[in-house]
């Protein structure tokens, strides 16, 4: 039985945009925390008296916990109310962030990070759902752009902000910085959303489904996070995790599809439009996130950029994204959204192909220009795809659809992060061997450098550095070519979505 608090009252003016700002900040904090501790692991490990490999659980624990609760969003929103869950998780995020910063042992820090991830997971899809629910139809495209930008920029800002705070203030500050923001945002939402209808449905808890979800998602996430550090399937630990994830996933599918009140309603995939849209979203986001991962690494390792300047070069994508949002919104209201999505993804593929022409002599603006041009294509991809997915489900299924599609996006991002870094390193190693093998005059080159006044050791180091630099460049070009192919695949998948009977209405995400 559905129970409501009180009728909705319209939000407008400053009140409306304060709510949007608070929701966007919550989403930003959650995605920021996925990467803010990455560069600080050695410092944290040293401070707590543990090894760097043990310290990496600060990252893995958060990612695993977050991945588990993202697909539970639909059930949580139905059981307790979308607004209640969002605000509770928001304020809990503040308190748990403070506890992370006050941790005095690795065990305490990891436990707090697990709790932080559990609270952070529902925030991402619920931020998307609430944006669509609270904004009037004519402003929903802009709201989705704000949500998408906080989702995409957070992981980029994380390492830059985390490194700066860790070096200049201390590692606890990377957790403390979110406390006042999350506290203020949660309290602001309590004040502004008081009295609004927040529907709930009394439903039993699917304990078996929840247990299976924790097992297979936890195993998969740990496999993706730790695989590169253990040489993937050469490690017995990774092999065991793969088996657990596969068996757990199979059991989860069987149980959830036959359970009367599933913890994750997989019957959402009966909608071909949602399934194809979510798959397009996942493959395209994986390719996009691979770009976000590889670009800063290349700028820092190949071109010598600092983390801050690498962040500048990748962060400019937001400029044209915001400016192009109204235009994309008007187009989505007048034409087949599949055409807009196809154009956007193919544009991203073209930009990835453009990067395959880069070399080690590119300037900052030459490297940043494709990223700057990414904005409009990104909006053409994300906004209509999300709208198409939400418009493909029945009323009342939006929160579940948002949770499932965001889970697929989260997993795609995790796969992209692991695979692109492993592939990049392996390709660089192969390229280095190939370049070295193609240098029959290597010793003569070293002798010439020695004759020019360098020491033998210095000449060898210079030549090695040159070969390494070129091998990284070759590897980067190959990775961008693969990313371009993945974008093209995503662009093809969108045509599996049935043609909408009319222009999609983003208000369908209500």
Describe this protein's structure.
This protein is mainly α and 510 residues long. It contains 21 helices and two strands. Strands 1-2 form a two-stranded antiparallel ribbon. Helix 5 packs across helix 6 (82-101), helix 14 (272-301) packs antiparallel against helix 21 and helix 19 packs antiparallel against helix 21. It starts with a strand and ends in a 17-residue tail after the last helix.
Helix proportion range: over 70%
Lateral arrangement of strands in the main beta sheet: 1-2
Mean pLDDT score: 78
Rounded to an integer in angstroms, the radius of gyration calculated over CA atoms is 24 Å
Query: Strand tally, please?
Result: 2
- Give the biggest sheet: 2 strands, antiparallel
From N to C, what is the helix and strand string? EHHHHHHHHHHHEHHHHHHHHHH
What's the tally of helices? 21
User: What's the overall geometry?
Assistant: globular
List low-pLDDT spans.
1-7, 505-510
**Computed structural class:** mainly alpha
Terminal-residue CA separation: 20 Å
Percent of sequence in beta strands? under 5%
List keywords for this structure.
globular; disordered N terminus; mainly alpha; disordered C terminus; single chain; two-stranded antiparallel ribbon; 510 residues; 1% strand; plasmid
